[in-house]
Amino acid sequence: MIRFEHVIKYFGERKVLDSVNFKVERGETFVIVGFSGAGKSVTLKHMIRLLTPDIGKIYVGDELMSTASGADLVRLREKFGMLFQDAALLEWMSVFDNVALPLREKTNMSNAAIEKRVEEKLRQVNLDGVHDAMPSELSGGMRKRVGLARAIVMNPDIILYDEPTSGLDPVTSRAIDQLIDRMRLELKVTSVVVTHDLFSALAIGTRIAMIYDGRILEISRPRDFIRSQNEIVKRFLDAQYITQRGAWERTDHETQ
Amino acid sequence: MITHEPEFLPPPSNLRGRLGRSVLLACRNAGRALLILWEAVLSLRFVFSKRSRPVVLQQLYITGIKSLGVISVVAMFTGMILALQMGLELRKYGQEVNIGLAVMVTMLREMGPFMTALILAASVGSAMAAELGTMTVSEEIAALEVMSISPVRFLVMPRLAAMMIMTPILTFYACMLGVVGGAIVGSTQLGVSVPAYIDNALRWAENKDLYVGLLKSFVFGIMITTICCYEGFATTEGAVGVGRATRRSVVISFLAILVVGYIITRLFYQ
Question: What are the boundaries of each domain within chain A?
Answer without folding.
Answer: 89-155
